[in-house]
């Protein structure tokens, strides 16, 4: 291969790689499968048994669980134990609606790596986005947590 052919081929490969990385970076903050607006869940209730393996972390203060999509919130719920109460928030990031990870050390971070973070009160603390996460009323009765839609 001569020098001209090498430069032409390597330039095309470099451009293709740059386009791929650029596309990955711009798409990392969006989730096309996620509805853009939350559903109206007024009047709905969900019960969670805290003795089931996936909810055991909610038995200790600071423990957190992220649920999948459900009737109350299609993005899922972030559940966080705070003393004798359990808080419930949407899992939908205020930046572009992508899912958030469970709380760790009092902070929930965007699951798709764009850096948005929320504190244990659901308030935006850093990264893209702003505002607060939608919260839901809860009732803890022994080992049963009820989350009320709204």
Structure commentary:
The chain is 17% helix and 27% strand. The chain is of the alpha+beta class and 150 residues long. The protein folds into two domains: 1-29; 45-148, 3-layer Sandwich (Rieske Iron-sulfur Protein), CATH 2.102.10.10. Mean pLDDT is 82; it is low at 15-36.
Show the helix and strand layout:
Blueprint: H1 3-27, E1 45-49, E2 64-66, E3 77-82, E4 85-90, E5 107-109, E6 117-119, E7 124-126, E8 135-141, E9 144-148
Antiparallel strand pairs: 1-9, 2-3, 3-4, 4-8, 5-6, 6-7, 8-9
**Termini, distance in Å?**
67 Å
- Named CATH topology of the largest domain: Rieske Iron-sulfur Protein
Radius of gyration in whole Å, from Cα?
21 Å
Count of distinct strands? 9
